[in-house]
Design a protein that fits this description.
134 residues; 1 helix
Length: 134
């Protein structure tokens, strides 16, 4: 009986720990006017689009997952589809990466906030750009 109770308590504590490490927390907010000068020898940049990046909040967890809530405006008068390669994150090691594939429809002049995963990375996200915001 004691072994059973011990096993249950161990399983409960492991489950509780997993929930804590998976929970996202908001990373320190970085000013929009922060200038970073990482080299970009391969000229990696987001795909051209009509999407203006209004603001973003980056989040992460202890597992290294990197997420962002991003607010964008479709500056075109017509409907446009936001695709993953229209956005790019700059990580603290200087590497640039687009999120995994997704698409979101925007009506002309529409502003939306979306939550986007940038996968797992040892380094935090320092900034996010779209072509229109460069």
């Amino acid at each position: 009986m004691y072994k059973f109770l011990l096993l249950i308590s161990i399983l409960f504590s492991v489950s509780s720990y997993a929930d804590e490490t998976e929970a996202l927390t908001v990373d320190r907010v970085i000013a929009n006017n922060l200038e970073l000068a990482f080299p970009n020898d391969k000229n990696v940049k987001p795909k051209a689009s009509d999407f203006e990046l209004i603001n973003y909040v980056v989040m992460s967890n202890d597992l290294g997952e990197r997420w962002a809530v991003i607010t964008l405006t479709n500056t075109s008068s017509g409907r446009r589809i936001l695709e993953h390669d229209h956005l790019m994150a700059l990580f603290a090691d200087g590497k640039r990466k687009s999120p995994p594939a997704f698409n979101v429809s925007f009506e002309g002049q529409e502003t939306q906030s979306i939550t986007v995963s940038f996968g797992e990375n040892k380094f935090p996200i320092l900034s996010i750009t779209s072509d229109a915001s460069l």
